[in-house]
Design goal:
By secondary structure, the chain is mainly α. The chain is built from 9 helices and no strands. It has a single domain, classed as Tetracycline Repressor, domain 2 (Orthogonal Bundle), CATH 1.10.357.10. The longest helix has 25 residues.
Length: 195
């Protein structure tokens, strides 16, 4: 009897291996041959799951976006404090640092390739929606309702967390979890005064 393989599961496994290679070596260094070697299979098998390197790399970018959103959503669903929710994206764990490295590897494509631009915009909208829900909950406002003040504060918080996290990626020895959290907590206190 032939082995039944879940196509999406296997495709995801191959893309996860490519994710690790991109985090370690960057986009240009990743080849089907390397991915096949990491998967313990042939390049023909990798080609079975992905049409070309571009298709595989785009899935790696999508994985990075999904992983972070999944962590944020899980922290929010557990009703964690705002600072704790936001901390799940900081590059202070190996997993988060690798995700940030993958993002950095791909952001240059977002302004020249439509598929990356659209994925980046989609992820930005999802992030803004989640940050708005986090702040609406914090401030006792209706979650999911359009609230211009909450949206403006959410945008500032996204910029703060992203900028702080980027500093943590570029100079990890200079930024501890505590120092990153302190800066975010300071911004949260500033936002709180504006509500």
């Amino acid at each position: 009897m032939p082995l039944i393989v879940d196509r999406e599961e296997r495709r995801g496994q191959v893309a996860s291996l490519a994710f690790d290679l991109v985090a370690d070596m960057g986009i240009e260094a990743v080849t089907f041959r390397q991915v096949a070697g990491a998967a313990g299979t042939s390049t023909a098998i990798v080609s079975n799951w992905f049409d070309n390197k571009g298709d595989l790399l785009f899935e790696v970018y999508r994985i990075a976006n999904r992983r972070v959103m999944d962590r944020l959503e899980a922290a929010f669903a557990q009703d964690q404090a705002l600072i704790d929710c936001l901390s799940v994206v900081l590059p202070v764990t190996e997993e988060n640092l690798r995700t940030w490295r993958v993002w950095l590897a791909f952001w240059g494509r977002a302004h020249i390739e439509a598929s990356y631009r659209e994925e980046t915009a989609r992820n930005a909208r999802s992030s803004l929606d989640l940050y708005c829900r986090m702040l609406a909950r914090r401030y006792g406002r209706k979650e999911g309702a359009h609230d211009p003040l909450v949206e403006a504060l959410a945008r500032r918080l996204i910029a703060t967390v992203g900028g702080i996290a980027l500093q943590g990626v570029l100079a990890p020895d200079d930024w501890s979890l505590e120092s990153l959290r302190d800066l975010i907590a300071t911004e949260i206190r500033v936002l709180d005064k504006e509500v």
